[in-house]
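RECORD TYPE: inverse folding
INPUT: structure tokens
STRUCTURE:
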């Protein structure tokens, strides 16, 4: 009887220990023996804030089997793009991709520099989808890092992806960077028409951005970790989420795809200064549909692309309260 009791106690203690083991994630870096400040900050936050166990591995050593049993894979910006993308593209766990050029090889964006946005340094982001979990309850423009150490070089996801935020350009230019943070859900069709084996997330935190993150920057970063851990499914909304101002809406254009004209409808709840602009994939404004005061209510505009080439365009509504965007496809 005594032996049986001891055995049961041992099994109970073992089950408690197993249950308390931390979740393990894979952090892929360029050189685990010489991590930069950002990678050190990332590893410390994963271990201390999220209580995750981190397996650290060099991008040349790792292969797809390393992802087995991991909660997710976090790929730093110091890796070799082509090398890591080939290894991680089809792994059946969520992937956080920080290396800009690897997103092309992962199939997340168009594989061409023609569709790439680039500007040397950014520090501010504009939240485009404040209702999404990954927006972390933020809206409008937010400063994400204390120094100009986030370099953009990302592309734009396919229509099945969701753009959460774009970088705010320098004041002396009209440059847009439309894919600063974006994601794909599991089973979504990627830009190269393959199916996402699991959740895929990209953010332009490359170089030393995460070493000097602001409070809002960390909110966005933390949301990506919780999203890959499927914390958004626990309550369906982001922690501390704040709703959009009541009544602001930018409807999907119709028809879509279109040729050569399409209708765009928006709703504003109060008398407001409104700017409705269409951009091409290079971030250049190709049409300004309105830039002025509008009364509360529904408003309809026509975008005529008669002289424009086929492709993806972005319609952006900007007010003093927020910015909303819709992707539109011109197909001739």
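DESIGNED SEQUENCE:
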């Amino acid at each position: 009887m005594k032996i049986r009791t001891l055995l049961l106690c041992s099994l109970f203690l073992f089950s408690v220990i197993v249950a308390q083991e931390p979740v393990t994630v894979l952090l892929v870096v360029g050189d685990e023996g010489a991590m930069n400040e950002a990678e050190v900050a990332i590893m410390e936050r994963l271990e201390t804030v999220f209580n995750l166990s981190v397996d650290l591995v060099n991008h040349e050593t790792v292969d797809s089997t390393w992802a087995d049993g991991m909660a997710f894979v976090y790929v730093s910006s110091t890796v070799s793009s082509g090398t890591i993308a080939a290894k991680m593209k089809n792994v059946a766990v969520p992937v956080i991709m920080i290396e800009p050029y690897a997103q092309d090889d992962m199939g997340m964006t168009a594989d061409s520099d023609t569709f790439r946005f680039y500007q040397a340094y950014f520090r501010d982001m504009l939240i485009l989808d404040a209702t999404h979990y990954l927006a972390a309850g933020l809206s409008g423009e937010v400063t994400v890092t204390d120094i100009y150490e986030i370099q953009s070089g990302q592309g734009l996801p396919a229509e099945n992806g969701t753009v959460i935020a774009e970088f705010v350009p320098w004041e002396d230019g009209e440059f847009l960077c439309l894919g600063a943070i974006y994601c794909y859900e599991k089973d979504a069709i990627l830009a190269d028409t393959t199916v996402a084996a699991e959740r895929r997330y990209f953010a332009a935190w490359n170089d030393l951005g995460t070493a000097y993150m602001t409070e809002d920057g960390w909110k966005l970063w933390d949301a990506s970790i919780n999203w890959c851990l499927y914390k958004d499914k626990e309550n369906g909304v982001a922690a501390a989420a704040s709703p959009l101002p009541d009544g602001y809406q930018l409807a999907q254009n119709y028809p879509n795809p279109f040729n050569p004209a399409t209708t765009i409808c928006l709703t504003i709840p109060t008398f407001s200064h409104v700017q409705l602009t269409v951009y091409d994939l290079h971030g250049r404004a190709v049409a300004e549909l309105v830039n002025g005061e509008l009364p509360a209510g529904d408003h309809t505009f026509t975008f005529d692309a008669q002289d424009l080439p086929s492709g993806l365009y972005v319609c952006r509504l900007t007010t003093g309260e927020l910015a909303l965007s819709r992707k539109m496809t011109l197909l001739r």
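NOTES: The helical segments are 2-20, 37-48, 81-88, 102-105, 215-228, 232-235.
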